[in-house]
Every structure is written in C-alpha cells, then in structure tokens.
Amino acid sequence: MKYGIDCGHNCPPDSGAVGIKREDELTLAVGYQVITQLQNLGHQVINCTPTSAKSVSDSLAKRCQKANDSHVDVFVSIHFNAFNGKAYGSEVFAISDKGKTLAKSVLNEICSLGFFSRGVKDGSRLYVLCNTNAPAILVECCFVDSSKDMQLFDVGKMASAIVKGLTGLTGVSPVQVSGDKWVELIDVLKATDIKYPQLKAAQLAQAILECGRGKSELFLLHNNPYGLKWRKEMSACATSVRYTAHDGLDDYCKFESLQDAVEGYWVFIGRSPYAGWERYANSPGDYLKFIVDAGYCPDKGYVDKVIKLLPEAIALLA
Ligand SMILES: [Zn+2]
C-alpha cells in the first residue's frame, strides 16, 4: 500500500491551533511516528506536508497535489482540535464509503486509548478531503486546549492507534528507527569533508550530548542534532521551526537532511560571534572552550561534559 500522510499545518501562514500544547508540534510528532511505523510494516509512505506556501489555500492545495501526483492509495491528514478548553475527544472526517470505513476503524482505535468518541463526521466541507483522489480521512486526534485530553495524550500511543486503525497491525516502535537515524548521522559525518577533520569528534560529541544519542525530537523531527537555535544567517541552509526544549519555547534550525545539518553546524560557527575560532582548530578542547565563552551555551559545565564524550565520539568515527 502507498499511504499519503499529511502532518496538518506546519507551513506558515498555515499554522495550527495553540492550546496547552501546539497543534503544529503534535501533528509533526504523531505524523513522524505514523510514517515510520507504516514503513516498518513494509508500506510505502509519501509525506504530503509541504515545506513552504504562499497562503493557507496554497498550503492545502500542495498537500492534495502531492498525494494525487504520487497516486497514493489512502490519504491521511493529521490534526488536533481546539475550541473552548472544555470540549474534548476525538473525531475523524471522511466523505467516501471507503474513507468512512477507515475513519471508523481509526476512531475506534484512538478511543480504545480512553479518548471520548465524537464520531465519524462528514468531511465534505474539508478541502483536503474534497480534493484528493484516494480514499481520505482527516483525523482530529484530540483537543490541544483540553487538559483532560492533553493528560491522556501520548505521541507513540496515538500514532500506533492510527496505524492499527489503518492497517489492522501495530507498527514497530520507532525506537529502532531513531537508532538508525543516529547511525546515519555518524555515517554522514564520517563521509563529509570538513576543513579541520580533527574537530569532527568535537562536533559529534556535541551531538551526543545535545540530542541524547539520537533521541531528541528536535533531531528526529527536524534533523537538528546540535540543538542549534535559529539565526538569520542560517537561512541559506535551514529554515526556522518553533520548538519547546528543556529551556522553553524558541526558534530552532530545521534542516532538510542530516547532510545539511552537518554542514549547517559550520555555517552556524562561521557567524560573527565566533570570529577567530580557527585559531583553536587544532585542539577540540580549546575549540569547545572558545565557542562556549563566545556564547554557544550558557551552561558553564558544557565544555567539560562535551570533553568527557570525546572518546566515545572518536570511537564512533573510527
Ligand atoms: Zn488543524
């Protein structure tokens, strides 16, 4: 089967609802896991989420066009609801009979997690359902402004429920996939020529710390293993994405690929706050001290933490 998966919104000016959590973040997180689980079950998946659009209607049209051009067998648009803080529960929209059958199946699985069923609803006023050729559903997983729903919500369980509703099977947990992506980052780093190869280990040690060896959502969803915040000079190699990390909501770099991330790191370091870093390029330790003093990270213990990880990084790159 070929699935078209659309992570709702995430394409300014098409942005999602904001409640206790942000719809944009949740649709990406659930969508990513749905995609990887479907792939693990052997299905082909087309990610129909566009990266840029001139307007909301352009954003919606691009999603449909991607699905139709790719001749997907089933189209699934993932959304979260918001209303008045009191409404809660899940609902799935569809138009065709095939779509309604899938909608009922997906809704049943989501409600088996404990969410209230608001029912299968008529999607004939929803653009992405009207303008896709394949049987299509739009899932409103639950309400981002409902504390009841947000307490119950778990990214992995929601994704598994959607996949089970679509296929009848439970996908493999994406933990393995995150491991694969981490290995991929190391391979990309190994294969990339950088001006000062002795600093590759420092670059990888920073990633080990920042993304927890490939586990952070910033890495899994946005290809940013270094926790690089958004700076306008990054626009040549990255786009900006709003993301809530341990230190709160901020704008971060989103890279198209891990290759872009590995090279983008050096674009980040090439900016004016770090002018003169090349004087320290012969020693990973001196280099790290210099960039941290120049403002790379407010945590004064950061340099020591990264230096302790250098042996692991050197071993991984060997
Ligand atoms: Zn939405």
Write the layout of secondary structure elements.
Layout lengths: L1 E6 L15 H18 L3 E4 L8 H14 L4 E8 L8 E5 L2 H15 L5 E6 L4 H4 L5 E8 L3 H6 L2 H13 L7 H17 L8 H11 L6 H6 L16 E7 L2 E7 L3 H12 L14 H10 L8 H16 L1
Parallel strand pairs: 1-2, 1-3, 3-6, 4-5
Antiparallel strand pairs: 4-6, 7-8
Helix pairs in contact: 1-6, 3-6, 8-12, 11-12
The site of zinc ion (ZN) has 5 residues, from loops.
Arrangement of strands in the largest sheet: 2-1-3-6-4-5
The largest sheet is: 6 strands, mixed
Whole-number total of structural domains? 2
Helix content: 40-55%
- Element order, helices and strands? EHEHEEHEHEHHHHHEEHHH
The portion of residues forming beta strands comes to 15-25%
CATH architecture of the largest domain: 3-Layer(aba) Sandwich
Number of strands: 8
- N-end to C-end Cα span: 40 Å
CATH topology of the largest domain: Aminopeptidase
Tell me the structural class. alpha/beta
Name given to the CATH homologous superfamily of the largest domain: Zn-dependent exopeptidases
Please compute the radius of gyration using only Cα atoms: 21 Å
Global geometry: elongated
Instruction: Indicate the CATH class of the largest domain.
Output: Alpha Beta
- Separate helix tally: 12
